Structure to design on (838 residues):
């Protein structure tokens, strides 16, 4: 037999590291036109639904005057803005006088009572309060307040008794600290004290006026030398949320809170020397009309009645909601993510892939990274286009635009992109596990998009079920799109359907990531262990 | 690295079917090794095990002494074509080769070179989904050549090829072997390999039945039997046996003779004045040799199918 000269290649040596594998998977992706088009379509769906939502969202107020009986339409006024930039409700009855420089105010409260309407509107004439029911609301509040000015939204700090949350110290709308618990009554009065020292306001409470407990300390940056200080009363309206299989509905009506104060003592310089009653009220307000609010003063005793609230306002349903089409874009990304793997199984191409790259875990990683990068960029571009366009449209349609901080806007934008990316990675994992397009697409849609549709869009489930769905399923990740935070000191319909998720934005996103991580691990296990 | 494929004692079971039952053979460089056996004999499974795609229950498959999974830049060690239909239909041939090239750190230029070599240059930018099976085979060959590997493995590369393609493929395989590469080509039809393979590994029921050079295999199968029809059976047997032949009476006046050429049998019978009415030499074709060898496994399969 002749001597064989073994074959020697003349190709120069190359590398087959992870970078090469990533490049190969990227080449695979970009050379299938359907996938590229699908990604663009997914992004366009998000933009399209966002623009549609914004263009259909109208807000206007009609005014009719004696001179001009034809209604004139105006854009809806924006709620007041608090010191933190957020929308606030700042509506209460204020018995005030100026406090110059440092000083303090101490009172005793002996009762907090209330009236409320269970049937929405009030009779327009006669005795407004005749048909109302006795009782306080959980967050009916009365107490003492030091406020930068009487302008709505200005900085403040307050000590108060509440309907059912005991004594609280609250400041600048979003801060809330609990003091002594329990209801106030003549037998069990509450002493409250506020002291000002520069920008720092300290709040104390006491059961007997001798032994005081510090409840909280608020720093009101830029508080003017002369502030407004005094007594206040306010109450949010009566609200009952009833939830059933048909969804959540709420009924309610306006309410009035009345508190009795005595032992009022002032420390420091109070140049006016006498108390002035003022109804701090928004132009468009659900609070009771001026006529039923007010105060009486006599023999050291004050009775103050007020309606409204001093609290953060519901500022959901705004710009970030125009990214609500992300779920539809996600469906496109999921289909592409699944196909990126299952198309290879269907044709047997996976064998070519694994012959070129026998380290299978890296193949899965490369596919996941390429798809995550592509869908992230597509999502980012979609969100970055949607937000300014829809903000413009919302404004043009008369909607006040809730102030979102730059950080929140960035989180919502990048979070939407990350949501698509992680969803696509999850689809890659499920595609690898199930190997069949139809089964994998169905599974991912049922696991990620369906819970979102049920909990957030449909409104057919009770609130508890809605919250459970967006807490434990991968749909929890949509929480990253929530713009406005929920506040415990506000009674509102905080349900997924109204844009509030039970988990914090990044916590919800972490739930989605955990699902993706588990599924990728299982997929890697299956890919490594099974014959290709 | 030595350009060899070394398969030792592979066993693999799919459910109740024993696909590989001690498969053992060696593919040497510089020749085309035919890997033949009936459908279901375990050829494709063996190839998948060699490529690390399927795991064997026992045994080993080594490329130049290393398991496939441990190879760096595997396509520069082994080129393979398992299934020509394994393509994303909407991706062009060139782009198919491009991602493969990128996975090995090879350039787009290399992809163009192998397209040229496989005779696909004019169709390279068309969707692979529109390719005929023969064109897909060429694309698969191009992919196998991408890393310019010393070991090549093709599963049924003649499938779907037109006669012109078959001629091209034969010359191509021989040329690859002549460069010093080890070339393993499977087929379920011996005729496809008759003029191409230098060495044959014949398999059936998951094990090797014969592992020999093509010439040896033919000789072993036919063993040059000669049939003699004569009325003087006894005399003929005596005379032929004395000359060193193996003689068997296979009919009332029929003898089957081996170990003697037909010419010397004619000479002996004439010398001894023994009459004969017919003398026929029988030489097996490779196809017959293969049929002979694989009859058992085919019968087994027919029974199993019942």
């Amino acid at each position: 037999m002749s001597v064989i000269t073994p074959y020697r290649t003349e190709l120069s040596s190359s590398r087959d590291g992870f970078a090469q594998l990533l490049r190969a998977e990227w080449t695979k992706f970009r050379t299938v036109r359907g996938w590229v088009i699908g990604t663009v379509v997914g992004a366009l769906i998000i933009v399209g639904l966002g623009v549609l939502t914004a263009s259909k969202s109208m807000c206007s107020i009609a005014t009719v005057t004696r001179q001009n009986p034809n209604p004139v339409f105006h854009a809806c006024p924006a709620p007041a803005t608090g010191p933190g930039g957020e929308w606030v409700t700042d509506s209460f009855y204020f018995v005030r006088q100026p406090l110059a420089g440092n000083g303090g105010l101490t009172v005793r409260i002996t009762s907090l009572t209330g009236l409320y309407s269970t049937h929405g509107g009030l009779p327009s004439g006669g005795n407004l309060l005749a048909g109302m029911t006795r009782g306080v609301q959980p967050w009916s509040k009365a107490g003492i307040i030091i406020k930068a000015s009487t302008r709505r939204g200005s900085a403040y700090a307050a000590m108060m008794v509440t309907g059912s949350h005991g004594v609280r110290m609250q400041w600048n709308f979003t801060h809330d600290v609990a003091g002594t618990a329990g209801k106030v009554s003549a037998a069990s009065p509450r002493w409250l004290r506020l002291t000002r020292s520069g920008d720092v306001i300290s709040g104390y409470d006491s059961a007997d006026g001798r032994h005081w407990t510090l409840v909280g300390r608020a720093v009101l940056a830029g508080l003017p030398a002369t502030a407004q200080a005094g007594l206040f009363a306010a109450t949010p309206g009566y609200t009952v949320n009833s939830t059933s299989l048909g969804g959540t509905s709420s009924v309610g009506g306006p309410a009035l809170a009345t508190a009795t104060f005595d032992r009022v003592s002032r420390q420091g310089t109070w140049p006016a020397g006498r108390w002035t009653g003022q109804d701090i009220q928004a132009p468009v307000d659900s609070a009771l009309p001026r006529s039923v609010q007010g105060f009486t003063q006599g023999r050291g005793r004050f009775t103050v009645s007020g309606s409204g609230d001093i609290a953060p306002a519901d500022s959901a349903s705004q710009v970030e909601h125009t990214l609500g089409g992300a779920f539809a874009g996600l469906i496109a990304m999921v289909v592409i993510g699944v196909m990126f793997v299952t198309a290879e199984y269907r044709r047997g191409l996976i064998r070519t892939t694994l012959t070129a790259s026998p380290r299978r875990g890296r193949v899965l990683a490369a596919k996941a990274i390429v798809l995550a990068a592509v869908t992230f960029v597509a999502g980012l571009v979609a969100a970055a286009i949607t937000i300014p366009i829809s903000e413009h449209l919302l404004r043009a349609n008369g909607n006040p635009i809730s102030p979102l901080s730059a950080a929140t806007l960035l989180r919502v934008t990048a979070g939407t992109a990350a949501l698509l990316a992680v969803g696509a990675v999850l689809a890659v994992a499920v595609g690898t596990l199930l190997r069949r397009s139809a089964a994998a697409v169905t599974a991912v849609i049922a696991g990620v998009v369906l819970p979102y549709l049920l909990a957030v869009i449909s409104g057919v489930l009770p609130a508890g079920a809605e919250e459970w769905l967006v807490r434990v399923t991968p749909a929890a990740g949509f929480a990253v799109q929530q713009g406005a935070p929920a506040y415990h000191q506000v009674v509102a319909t905080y349900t997924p359907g109204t844009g509030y998720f039970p988990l914090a934005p990044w916590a919800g996103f972490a739930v989605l990531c955990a699902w993706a991580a588990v599924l990728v691990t299982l997929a890697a296990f299956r890919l490594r262990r099974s014959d290709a | 690295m030595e350009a060899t494929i070394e398969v030792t004692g592979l066993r693999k079971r799919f459910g109740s079917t024993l696909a590989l039952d001690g498969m053992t053979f060696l593919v040497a460089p510089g020749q085309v090794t035919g890997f033949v056996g009936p459908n279901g004999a375990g050829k494709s499974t063996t190839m998948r095990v060699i490529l690390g795609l399927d795991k064997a229950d026992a045994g080993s498959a080594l490329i130049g002494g290393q398991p496939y999974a441990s190879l760096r830049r595997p396509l520069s060690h082994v080129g393979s074509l398992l299934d020509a239909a394994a393509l994303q239909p909407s991706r062009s041939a060139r782009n198919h080769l491009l991602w493969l090239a990128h996975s090995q750190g090879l350039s787009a230029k290399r992809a163009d070179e192998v397209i040229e070599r496989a005779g696909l240059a004019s169709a390279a930018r068309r969707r692979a989904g529109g390719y005929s099976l023969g064109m897909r085979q060429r694309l698969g060959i191009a992919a196998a050549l991408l890393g310019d590997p010393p070991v090549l493995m093709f599963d049924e590369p003649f499938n779907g090829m037109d006669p012109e393609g078959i001629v091209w493929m034969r010359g191509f395989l021989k040329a690859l072997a002549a460069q010093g590469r080890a070339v393993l080509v499977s087929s379920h039809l011996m005729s496809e390999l008759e003029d191409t393979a230098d060495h044959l590994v014949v398999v059936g029921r998951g094990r090797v039945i014969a592992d020999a050079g093509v010439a040896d295999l033919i000789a072993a199968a036919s063993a040059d039997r000669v049939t003699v029809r004569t009325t003087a059976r006894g005399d003929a047997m005596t005379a032929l046996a004395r000359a060193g032949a193996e003689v068997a009476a296979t009919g009332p006046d029929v003898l089957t003779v081996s170990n003697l050429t037909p010419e010397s049998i004619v000479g002996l019978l004439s010398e001894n004045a023994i009459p004969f009415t017919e003398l026929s030499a029988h030489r097996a074709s490779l196809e017959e040799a293969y049929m002979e060898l694989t009859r058992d496994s085919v019968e087994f399969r027919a029974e199993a199918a019942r």
